[in-house]
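Researcher: Next sequence.
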Amino acid sequence: MTTTRDENLSLERETLYMEWRQDREQATPRSLKYWIAEYPSFADDFVTWASELPLMTTTLYRFDTTAEEERLGKVGRSVVAEMRARYGMARPALTSLTEAARERNLRLRDVAERVGVGVPIVSKLEQRLLKFATLPETLIQKLAETLELGTEAVREYLRQPPTLAAGAAYQYTGKAAPSVTDQQDFAEAIRSCPGMSDADKQAWLTNPQA
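Model: Next structure:
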């Protein structure tokens, strides 16, 4: 029987995985950088294995629930994105939070609920109408985890100059759209955000890093 190229590649990957796992059990395992340099054609595999290993270990001590599995999966995919960026294998730069959400079958409302802010806040983040220096790190981390992106990719997007699409960011307040140079402090945006409960607002205002 003839062995196909895919079968050979799969066998090589399995053999390499076993070698890598055995190395991880050593007192001083080789670095991820070493493995990528040694086997560049399997770079994506090493990044995935390295990011999933601690998650698999963690799940041994957690309850086996669908919600927990989904949460860990999101964290894992975010870690993969971070590792890709760190080792020069990043995806194309983030150009739209809306598009990133759509690729994961999420609406901006879904993103807002998972991050814990109002839809207008996500809309303003989409168009970079909030001053980057005032954004809590927790907000960036939650946004990255929800969209399954690396935090640095989200930071780079939010650092860019503001843009505006037909006053979308202010459509919930009935106010006139600001010019593209106008940006708000995060705290100010939270205080005036419709649709957010007082408790949610207070949580971001008094303990934004929680």
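Model: The mean pLDDT is 77. The first helix runs from residue 5 to 24.
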